[in-house]
Design brief:
The structure holds two protein chains of two kinds. Helix content of chain A is 73%, strand content 0%. By secondary structure, chain A is mainly α. Chain A is globular and about 75 Å long. The two termini of chain A are 36 Å apart. By secondary structure, chain B is an all-alpha fold. In chain B, helix 7 crosses helix 8 and helix 9 packs across helix 10 (214-252). The relative contact order of chain B is 0.14. At the A-B interface, helix 5, helix 6, helix 9, helix 10 and helix 11 of A face helix 1, helix 6, helix 7, helix 10 and helix 11 of B.
Chain lengths: 316, 305
């Protein structure tokens, strides 16, 4: 394709971000193709799809078995077929199927983690963008506050706050979101500090764009990939925090079901009925592991160098 | 270098003050200790008297002023539950938690270096893939669940180890094992990444050309250069470690700071919560300085820059 000759006064080397963008579009990875060739990532993806099915149809399929008490079927052991396949993972102290409760609990467990992760991403990034772009003492105060939040074990702060506010899913989301804000504030700010010195921001300002337009149209799209990369890992971390708090009894309260709460309820029967605590905990681990595996895989597929190394290893 | 450390110290100090303020007011919002320590049928007069004795009747801002005044002479108040200085109680719990942290970090770091280096020798090889998935699994496992599972296997099932409490070495095996898992998994990934990068550096090629044995290239030349990101990760894990020990110490009935703080919050023992927070923040503060100094020791660019 013919390129019109550049006028002499135009700077010779192209702005780096333009180049980067061209390269990125040219080698956009074929995600499904790579997924099919990576058995571990494929397994992780299949697991997450299964969980989505649980979220959507769980209550509808096994809702009765999860909530209905059946004192005659109390503490049926793992592998039991008494009362049907649904009791294959055993039953709890009130005779409710552990499997059914796990399936129904998926929705709240993932819902709380997902809501917190998305809220932390959006709010944290906005604050970070603002702190970085405006700078000055407002920026410094914001950073100092996020430092305070980050310098202290989040579980203890969450405990105090949940004792003040009384535990409920909404307050839990609030606590988890606030706890993760500093990560996004810090990352978004660091990116902005670098980006706002770049040529395209100056250019936008010269043609008369105001601060809000510059952030929204020029800086935010550049920050987005970084923070989205972080949120995938963060999601797993939030799930672990939520389950810890529910386990300690200050998170979600019965009769709502989450996996962390199920482990907590099962811990009193450790010596007689290990399956009550074991399987919900296993679900937490398999899910966070799958999310982490997918996050790693995504990073690998997006990074041309890693992809090249991977392809070469496959070929040899 | 000195300016950098001083600046970091000042920043952490401001954070510490902010934290103390936050905790002071938040913990008082959880409710009055009188509701917890007096019997339900206590008279209103007794209630008022109790609150007055413990200095909780005055406006919060006055209480805060007094707290700051006492803090200046390192007096962090008296525990309402045990009727002795809060600092004493917290300092009694600290050695246990520090020993727990020390053993955990020792095992996690050693294991992570061995696994990470092994994985980095052949990236995307079979060993690498297995180690990667295992270390991710270690970092993904909820520690309270690992604790319960290990208790049911080793303590309830085989009756090899005690379920909880403190005493000889056998009481330390399970808590240290559980707490090691997550840092081990996270650190192994960092070691692997850093080693892969270090092994492609020109100085490694030079060493190979000179005929240096591969083992010393790995553990001397590359590992030293890969140790900076690992150090960063260890520092970042310090706060996360306290999170973990709060849960694990409660499960194993381990008399450390984590359990002390969680109990103090539950029992509205304000002075102990404050003392615990102040001292913990100070420990994290000291650790950050140590890590900054370790950077300088490892990286000549920082030392001379």
């Amino acid at each position: 394709m013919a390129i019109p000759p550049a006028p002499t006064e135009m700077p010779r080397p192209q702005a780096p971000e333009v180049q980067a963008e061209m390269v990125a579009t040219r080698t956009r990875p074929a995600y499904l193709h790579f997924l099919a060739r990576d058995p571990v990532a494929l397994l992780a993806a299949a697991w997450l799809v299964l969980l989505i099915v649980f979220v959507v149809f769980g209550e509808w399929i096994v809702g009765d078995a999860a909530h209905g008490l059946n004192l005659r079927a109390r503490a049926l052991p793992f592998g039991s077929t008494e009362g049907g396949w649904i009791n294959v993972l055993g039953t709890d102290a009130l005779g409710r199927s552990v499997l059914a409760r796990i399936i129904v609990g998926t929705k709240v467990t993932l819902g709380i983690a997902l809501t917190s992760a998305v809220l932390a991403l959006l709010i944290g990034t906005l604050i970070g963008l603002w702190a970085g772009f405006v700078g000055g003492w407002t920026g410094r105060v914001i950073m100092q506050i996020s430092d305070v939040l980050q310098s202290f074990p989040s579980i203890l702060l969450a405990m105090v706050v949940l004792y003040v506010l009384t535990p409920s899913p909404v307050n839990l989301i609030l606590v988890l979101t606030v706890g993760q804000l500093p990560v996004y504030i810090r990352v978004a700010r660091a990116e902005v500090l670098e980006l706002r010195e770049r040529l395209f921001v100056d250019a936008a300002r010269v043609i008369g764009a105001n601060s809000r337009q510059i952030i929204r149209l020029h800086i935010a799209p550049m920050v987005a990939p970084t923070v989205i990369n972080i949120v995938t890992i963060d999601f797993a971390l939030i799930m672990l925090s939520e389950s810890s708090l529910s386990f300690l009894g200050i998170g979600v309260q019965a009769p709502t079901i989450t996996w962390g709460l199920m482990v907590s309820q099962g811990k009193d029967y450790l010596d007689t009925a290990w399956w009550m605590a074991f399987f919900p905990g296993l679900m937490i681990m398999l899910t966070t592991l799958s999310i982490n595996l997918m996050a790693n895989w995504l990073r690998r597929v997006r990074d041309p160098r890693e992809r090249w190394r991977y392809e070469r290893a496959k070929a040899s | 270098m000195r300016d950098y450390v001083l600046k970091r110290m000042l920043q952490s100090l401001i954070s510490l003050v902010g934290l103390v303020i936050l905790v002071f007011f938040l913990v008082r919002l959880t409710g009055s200790p009188a509701d917890l320590y007096l019997p339900d049928d206590a008279s209103e007069a007794a209630r008022q008297e109790y609150i007055r004795i413990h200095g909780l009747d005055r406006p919060m801002i006055v209480q805060f002023g007094e707290f700051l005044r006492d803090l200046a002479v390192l007096d962090l108040g008296t525990s309402i539950r045990q009727a002795r200085p809060a600092v004493e109680i917290v300092l009694e719990a600290y050695p246990t938690s520090l020993a727990l942290a020390g053993w955990t970090m020792l095992f996690a770091t050693t294991g992570a270096i061995l696994l990470g280096v092994w994985a980095s020798v052949r990236p995307t090889g079979v060993v690498d893939r297995i180690i990667s998935v295992l270390s991710l699994a270690g970092a993904s496992a909820p520690n309270f669940w690992v604790a319960l599972t290990l208790i049911s296997i080793f303590a309830v099932g085989f009756r090899l180890l005690p379920t909880s409490g403190i005493g000889g070495w056998e009481y330390w095996v399970l808590p240290v094992m559980v707490l090691t898992l997550r840092p081990l998994g996270l650190l192994a990934q960092v070691v692997r990444e850093a080693m892969i990068r270090a092994l492609t550096a020109p100085y490694v090629r030079t060493a190979k050309a000179k005929g240096v044995p591969f083992r010393s290239i790995l553990y001397v030349h590359a590992l030293r250069n890969a140790s900076l990101p690992v150090l960063t990760m260890i520092g970042a894990q310090a706060v996360g470690f306290i999170n973990g020990s709060v849960v694990i110490e409660s499960i194993f009935g381990f008399p450390g700071v984590g359990k002390l703080l969680i109990d103090a919050i539950r029992m509205r023992d304000f002075a102990v919560v404050q003392a615990g927070v102040v001292i913990t923040a100070a420990v994290i503060f000291l650790m950050n300085i140590l890590i900054d100094l370790a950077y300088a020791a490892l990286d000549p660019r920082i030392r001379h820059g």
